[in-house]
Amino acid sequence: MKSLRFPGFFCVGSDIFQDFLSYASCYGKKFVFIGGKRSLGAARGELEKSFAGDDMCSCSFAECGGIATIAEIDRVSALAEVAEAEVVCAVGGGSCMDVARTIANRSGRPLLMLPTTVASDAPCSCVSVFYDEAGTSVVGDEVFYKCPDMVMVDSKVIANAPKRQIASGMADALATYYEGITCRNHPNGTGITETAMMIAGLCRDIVLRDGFAAYQSVENHIVTPQLENVIEANCFLSGVGGANTGCAAAHGMGDYLCKIPGGHDFMHGERVFVGLVVQMILEQYPVEEIRTILRFGKRMGLPASLADLGVKDIEKTACSLAEGLQGDHFMANLCCDYSVNKLAGSILYAQCLADNLL
Predict the structure, then answer these.
(1) pLDDT 10s digits, 298-335
(2) Are 260 and 317 in contact (CB under 8 A)?
(3) What is the DSSP letter of 33?
(4) CA-CA distance, 338 to 255, in Å (whole number)?
(5) pLDDT tens across 192-215, in order?
(6) pLDDT at residue 66 tops 90
(7) Cβ of 286: how many Cβ atoms within 10 Å?
(8) Which of 212, 246, 240 is nearest to 226 (CA)?
């Protein structure tokens, strides 16, 4: 069987949060917005404007913590304003979206995503990832097979977010294409559609074409066509592409890097970028293509190697990672040899390429 999962509606534009209700009233009358303190602060004023003068609809706001843990999901779901809402909305980044996604899907309520950062493809995803209380290890995930009902991205909000976040999102988006090819070539990849692969390829093309211009737009806090193109790639194309293809070594290694000292100080996409370079080496992509990806990342300050993550003993850490990743469920999607020696050697060669980038 082949299948495709998409969000019900996706839109991006400047100052569109103030028009939220005109798009969302079809989902219900009583809305709750779940997010971190900073994210709610960035969006609350515009969202409240959209409800002004409407006697039929109401909104409330619920603050959640910075890590999507089982305990945090239980705490937020028990809040009166959340329990009584007809429509669950997430405002912020990946963690608050995983909290809201889990609450909405488990209770059968509509789910609306309003990202204030495009650091990952979480807005369009149908998977929630759960961390331990320290936020250093993934302890589980839940697949809902239903993408959010609506995803609304205000490009003005993204233009005023830290530039590191959009760079991290582009790293995650680039991995969508390469991991999609890997999963498609795997014997279990027969359910991956041509549409999914075209979306993943378009995601890569837009990021490489407009990525640096979008990064500069955020540096200067301005909205440009290139910025909105990359928002589409980071949020929609990467999310839909990933949801309909799969993950491999880039995400397998990226998630595992949380376990090294200081690993959790880096964003999800930053760690995935390090894993992507290693995956491309394992799969024997042309060295010049690998260098192209490395140069792109370096322009925006993305870490590309263990040394960039602050690792001192590169060889010891490479061997430890190679051993620890042997049973990883994402690594299992690789069609090449990733035994301990091959994987450790690829990690060390990635360091060599990064150190000698021309």
Answers:
(1) 999 999 999 999 999 999 999 999 999 999 999 999 99
(2) yes
(3) E
(4) 17
(5) 999 999 999 999 999 999 999 999
(6) no
(7) 9
(8) 212
Geometric angle at alpha carbon 326, from 313 and 130, rounded to 5° = 90
- Percentage of the chain beyond pLDDT 70 is 100
pLDDT of 145 higher than 90: no
Q: CA separation (Å) from 104 to 32, 76, 138, 148, 210?
A: 11, 11, 21, 9, 34
Distance (Å, whole) CA 99 – CA 74: 9
Coil, strand or helix at 35:
strand
- Residue 279, pLDDT score: 98
Tokens of 308: 């960039």
Beta strands (DSSP E) in the chain are 10-13, 30-35, 58-63, 87-92, 111-115, 127-131, 138-143, 150-154
Closest CA to 262 of 301, 299, 343, 317: 317
- Give yes or no for a contact between 64 and 36, defined as CB atoms under 8 angstroms apart: yes
